Amino acid sequence: PGELRASDAKLPSPDTLAPLRDDALPDWTWHEQSLRLLDAGLLGAAFAAAGYTPPAGTHLLAVEVRAGVGQPAFRYASLGATATTYSAGVYWPASTVKLTAAVAALVTLKSYGLTGAANVSLSDDDGSYAGSVKNLYAKAIEISDNVAYNRLVELAGFDELNEQLLTPASSLPSLVIQRRYTHPLPTSNLRTSPPVSYSEGSLTGTIPKRVGVSQHPACPDEGNCVTLLELLELLRRVVLHDELPAQDRFPLAPADVAGLKASLLTAPTRLEPGASQALGHPVQVYNKTGEVWGDDRLDHGLVVDTVSGARYLLALSLPYNSTTDAMASELARQALSALVGSAGQGVVLQRNAGSSLTVQLDDGGPGKTPGTRAYTLTVAAPGADSLELAMDGYALPKPAGPSPYFKLQHDFSKSGERLLVVRALAAGKAIGYRALRVKLN
Q1: Separation CA 411–CA 218 (nearest Å)
Q2: Quick count: other Cβ atoms within 10 Å of Cβ 49?
Q3: Do residues 137 and 186 lie in contact, with contact meaning Cβ atoms separated by under 8 Å?
Q4: Neighbours of 149 (CB within 10 A)
Q5: Cβ-contact 227, 87 below 8 angstroms
Q6: Are 292 and 97 in contact (CB under 8 A)?
Q7: 34, 78, 319, 358, 423 from 40: Cα distances, Å
Q8: Could you tell me how far CA 266 lies from the centroid of its own chain?
Q9: Is the pLDDT of residue 15 over 50?
Q10: How many percent of the chain have pLDDT more than 90?
């Protein structure tokens, strides 16, 4: 959709090719790239083919995790636009944000040279606490303790959380945490972090009182607001921490990565029954649920097939009063069945890696069909014997090559800035990947 067939125009002879220039614009963030590759039609089409109708008010994101070049690669699928729907006024994220609070607390502690093994003491509207940070995040994730969540946000700091961690640059552009989950006093809020005494090994000291002043009008009433895409992005960077490039890792101690994963594996889940049915094997689920009677029931997590090793990421939200946990499990089954049934298809996203890929785009003027424009794509891919190309998630024809360069002439029907994905292969194995931002006239 949106593209025309390749032109059959004659390619220039190799000896006429000049050294390539690289026509990439500055990279988009991971979030911006995932929006370009998000398949909004796959799940709906698969559900219709299976005769399945999701409950009214369903929001769903399903991601297939594949082997990439030196790291995992991800194929994103949304039920329509629901994976990118902002929750404000639509659904309540409830306890799903407690993992975010845990990560934020550990990131702030890292700036003091501390880890989750640190012992902290503080007094707030919920009373007093003295104990380890690990105990707080385990309680927040495993039994969804609201006081532990409050204290994790207090450790993180309101502005540190919302202005330094949850930012467009970190691919978490609209996720906001503002709401306290207990209100012992009419004035209780999360903007004020009390002084925190800490000790870990030879380190001792006090984190001073902090008062958050940042404003987030898109998330009214001091609420917590997310998209499923962002919610799953934060979890992805925790559960796959050790496999991701350094730029995608939160600054967490190895013991805390292991601790968070252990708590996510221990936490109750709505995904497991349906996931095991869809995959035909027992599964492990690293997840965090959320629910509020009268609002919504949610879950998001990593599903691991314990036999095949296949992995998937899922995030879902359903209206609470009109659904059941069994319906959430069936939604997970249907979503995973859709991914399994289309395995190997679609366009995956990963960080650029492997063989160095240089891409030159030459504007050839109007295309063969009115409203199109002809371009020649020339790619240098050392060591590759074939390429796979896609533009904004749509596969392009195979280019000719590889000597001296790969080359494709193609008519494009959409102009503007776009995401070109290049996968270089040698003997069928991917040896290079690049997702680059380009501009078509």
Answers
A1: 40
A2: 10
A3: no
A4: 29
A5: yes
A6: no
A7: 12, 5, 21, 30, 22
A8: 22
A9: no
A10: 95
Q: Average pLDDT of 208-235?
A: 97
CA separation for the pair 134, 258 (Å, rounded): 11
Residues 6 or more apart whose CB falls under 8 angstroms from that of 168 comprise: 29, 31
Cα 4 from Cα 394, distance rounded (Å): 11
For range 296-317, the mean pLDDT: 98
Q: Of 324, 245, 243, 264, which is closest to residue 291 (Cα–Cα)?
A: 324
Does pLDDT of 170 surpass 70? yes
Which tokens hold the place of 38?
């998000």
pTM of the model: 0.94
- How many of the other CB atoms lie within 10 Å of CB of 29? 15
Termini Cα distance of the chain: 19
Q: Which residues pair with 204 in a beta bridge?
A: 199
- The distance of Cα 249 from the centroid of its chain, to the nearest Å, equals 12
pLDDT in tens, 357-370: 999 999 999 999 99
d(CA 148, CA 145): 5
Whether residue 288 has pLDDT greater than 50: yes
State the pLDDT at residue 17: 53
Evaluate if residue 3 carries a pLDDT over 70. Answer: no
Please give the full DSSP string across 17-80, using - where no structure is assigned: PPPPP--PBSPPPHHHHHHHH-BSSHHHHHHHHHT--PPTT-EEEEEEEEE-SSSEEEEEEEST
- What CA–CA distance (Å, rounded) separates 216 from 213? 10
Whole-number Å distance between alpha carbons of 299 and 291: 9
- Cβ-in-10-Å burial (0-12, 13-18, 19+) of 365 comes to exposed
What letters, b where the CB count within 10 A reaches 16 and e where it falls short, cover 77-106? Answer: bbbeebbbbbbbeebbbbbbbbbbbbbbbb
Whether the CB-CB separation of 108 and 133 falls below 8 Å is answered with no
Query: CA 65 to CA 239: how far, in whole Å?
Result: 12
Structure confidence at residue 11 as a pLDDT band (50, 70, 90): very low
Other beta carbons less than 10 A from residue 163's beta carbon: 14
∠ at Cα 150 (256, 300), nearest 5°? 60
Tokens of 295: 């609002």
pLDDT at residue 19, rounded to an integer = 84
Please give the full DSSP string across 102-130, using - where no structure is assigned.
HHHHHHHHHTTT--TT-EEEEEETTEEEE
